[in-house]
Amino acid sequence: MVKVTFFNGDTKQITADQRVIYYYADAQTIHITYPDGMEVLHFPNNQTEKHFPDGRKEITFPDQTVKSLFPDGREESVLTDGTIIQVNPDGTKEIHFNTGQKEIHTADYKRREYPDGTVKTVYNDGRQETRYPNGQLRIKDKDGNITLDNMNASTPLCCIAFVTQLHFFARYRCQLLIGAVV
């Protein structure tokens, strides 16, 4: 083993198995380079980074969250509760929660998929669309007003029209009451 100590307190060791261990005194950081090209950095806050020869990087944060960076621009983080966050080079993001729920973020919308099959999508303009496992589709405008609610796939159209009219009249009556007070 060869060890060199520098005037600034840094040290460099070359071990018998050809690892190079460099200690940065000011930063209190250890940088290990392995013969196969892999590099590992240990920081004083207990963060560890691994740089693989294929260009991949893996960062383990002090809370044990692990983030992997891939040469093609993808990122994947595994949180301590088991949640997995994947970010693609195009900016889309998928979040897999430990509850079985999945969330997808794109430039146009955010979508949450539930284990029971329910899918809720919120668009950038504020519109919301919820699809239920029984076939029901509910659409709300940006203000949260229901613009479509087909109840379920077997609901007769007359019932859908009735519910839509009830919603309209309830909203209209509320506006009239508010207007009368003002």
Automatic annotation (TrEMBL):
<dbReference type="Pfam" id="PF07202">
    <property type="entry name" value="Tcp10_C"/>
</dbReference>
<dbReference type="InterPro" id="IPR009852">
    <property type="entry name" value="CENPJ_C_dom"/>
</dbReference>
<dbReference type="GO" id="GO:0005813">
    <property type="term" value="C:centrosome"/>
</dbReference>
<dbReference type="GO" id="GO:0005814">
    <property type="term" value="C:centriole"/>
</dbReference>
<protein>
    <recommendedName>
        <fullName>Centromere protein J C-terminal domain-containing protein</fullName>
    </recommendedName>
</protein>
<dbReference type="GO" id="GO:0015631">
    <property type="term" value="F:tubulin binding"/>
</dbReference>
<dbReference type="InterPro" id="IPR047002">
    <property type="entry name" value="Tcp10_C_sf"/>
</dbReference>
<dbReference type="GO" id="GO:0060271">
    <property type="term" value="P:cilium assembly"/>
</dbReference>
<dbReference type="InterPro" id="IPR026581">
    <property type="entry name" value="TCP10L/CENPJ"/>
</dbReference>
<dbReference type="GO" id="GO:0061511">
    <property type="term" value="P:centriole elongation"/>
</dbReference>
<comment type="similarity">
    <text>Belongs to the TCP10 family.</text>
</comment>
<feature type="domain" description="Centromere protein J C-terminal">
    <location>
        <begin position="35"/>
        <end position="63"/>
    </location>
</feature>
<feature type="domain" description="Centromere protein J C-terminal">
    <location>
        <begin position="71"/>
        <end position="105"/>
    </location>
</feature>
<feature type="domain" description="Centromere protein J C-terminal">
    <location>
        <begin position="110"/>
        <end position="139"/>
    </location>
</feature>
